[in-house]
């Protein structure tokens, strides 16, 4: 594959691989900003990053539509109403290094930095589909919106593809966008410009970058990344070889689970008094059952939970930033010189993030209690 045309990438990211370019910031840097600045937005690629001229890029819509259409980016911008949504983009492999510590997993050993809470601007996919008209589905058939980028090459297939159920695409409340802006700027090549899909609440793999083709189908995208990756296989399938004939038996992932991560822990004790303080900061993301309602911290292995203060949350699709300051002596907290803090998130329906997360060979959807040491 040709990596000679890569744009200049952010220098604030820790590089996991140069070709394809895969890099993430630290969680400690991320939680300092409610809206993630572009320089801190992780990059996840399955092939070369390419820069495209907006004036020559086209988006085609075909398949089970009443009218096949092809639009230039400019036409999309002028013919449809624009919409903005704040939503967290997150890779399914977030915290894979922690799952890999349980037992070997396949994939980029991402830490907890593959998340970006950005303001996305574009047009609603719903408007585009209503404009083309979607054909009636054959009885008992669920239709899917398949997204492809033929414009770039990738490692495991001849194009990058993903799909979402048509129902999700047409749901006005789901805010699915064809985006051309990120944080009020033109979407950069690194993040899929000129056009990328934004599916709030779904894993990043479905947010197809450099989007050029939409096909309405009676089946999911046949692409490798929809069919043979981004699935939670049961733990007994523990090698690539064993997985080979199993993929089709398991559903493609849609949302990611309720999660929280400890991004930083600062312990300070003053020599003059016996008191010490612990400042813990982190972020949290919802699962599919409502946004994060509470985040709690324990420094005694789960015997006592202390409520953290939520300092940022915006709408249905954002991440949550939280912090807590524990002071020894107050509220009978004892803070040892060294220790371990854990975080857990609780959502609007009262579901709590689990203490442990089940292992799977691709190391996706890890959501055990967040952990931080001092
Ligand atoms: N065309 C294309 N789209 C893609 C990918 C890719 O490799 N190629 N990677 C996907 C994955 S797995 C993730 S997590 C997000 C990452 O988006 P980002 O690089 O803007 O952070 O893009 C998704 N869209
Ligand atoms: Mo991803």
TrEMBL record:
GO cellular component: mitochondrion
Gene3D superfamilies recorded: 2.60.40.650, Oxidoreductase, molybdopterin-binding domain (3.90.420.10)
Annotated keywords: Metal-binding, Molybdenum, Oxidoreductase
Domain Moybdenum cofactor oxidoreductase dimerisation per the UniProt entry, residue ranges: 253-369
Signal sequence, start to end: none
Cofactor entry: Mo-molybdopterin
A biological process from GO: sulfur compound metabolic process
GO molecular function term, any single one: molybdopterin cofactor binding
InterPro entries recorded: Ig_E-set, MoCF_OxRdtse_dimer, Mopterin_OxRdtase_euk, OxRdtase_Mopterin-bd_dom, OxRdtase_Mopterin-bd_sf
Entry-linked Pfam families: Mo-co_dimer, Oxidored_molyb
Oxidoreductase molybdopterin-binding domain residues: 46-225
PANTHER family listed in its UniProt record: SULFITE OXIDASE, MITOCHONDRIAL (PTHR19372:SF7), SULFITE REDUCTASE (PTHR19372)
Record's protein name: Sulfite oxidase
Source organism per UniProt: Candolleomyces aberdarensis
């Amino acid at each position: 594959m040709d990596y000679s045309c890569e744009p200049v990438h952010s220098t604030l990211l820790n590089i996991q691989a140069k070709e394809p370019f895969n890099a993430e910031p630290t969680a400690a840097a991320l939680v300092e900003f409610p809206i993630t600045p572009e320089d801190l937005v992780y990059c996840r690629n399955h092939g070369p990053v390419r820069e495209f001229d907006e004036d020559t890029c086209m988006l085609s819509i075909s398949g089970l539509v009443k009218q096949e259409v092809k639009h230039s980016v400019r036409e999309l911008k002028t013919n449809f109403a624009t919409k903005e949504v704040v939503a967290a983009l997150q890779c399914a492999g977030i915290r894979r290094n922690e799952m890999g510590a349980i037992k070997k997993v396949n994939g980029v050993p991402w830490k907890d930095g593959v998340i970006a809470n950005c303001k996305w601007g574009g047009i609603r996919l719903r408007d585009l589909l209503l404009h083309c008209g979607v054909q009636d589905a054959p009885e008992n058939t669920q239709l899917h919106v398949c997204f492809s980028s033929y414009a770039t090459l990738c490692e495991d297939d001849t194009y990058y593809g993903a799909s979402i159920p048509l129902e999700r695409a047409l749901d006005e409340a789901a805010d699915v966008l064809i985006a051309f802006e990120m944080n009020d700027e033109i979407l950069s090549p690194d993040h899929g410009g000129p056009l990328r899909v934004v599916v709030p609440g779904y894993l990043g793999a479905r947010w197809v970058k450099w989007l050029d083709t939409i096909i309405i189908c009676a089946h999911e995208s046949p692409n490798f990344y929809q069919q043979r990756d981004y699935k939670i296989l049961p733990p007994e399938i523990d090698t690539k070889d064993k997985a080979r004939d199993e993929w089709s038996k398991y559903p493609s992932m849609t949302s990611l689970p309720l999660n929280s991560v400890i991004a930083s822990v600062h312990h300070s004790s003053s020599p003059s008094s016996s008191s010490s303080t612990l400042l813990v900061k982190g972020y949290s993301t919802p699962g599919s059952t409502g946004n994060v309602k509470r985040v709690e911290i324990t420094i005694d292995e789960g015997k006592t939970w202390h409520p953290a203060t939520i300092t940022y949350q915006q709408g249905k699709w954002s991440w949550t930033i939280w912090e807590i300051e524990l002071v020894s002596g107050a509220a009978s907290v004892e803070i040892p010189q060294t220790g371990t803090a854990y975080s857990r998130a609780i959502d609007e329906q009262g579901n709590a993030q689990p203490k442990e997360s089940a292992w799977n060979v691709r190391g996706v959807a890890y959501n055990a209690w967040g952990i931080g040491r001092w």
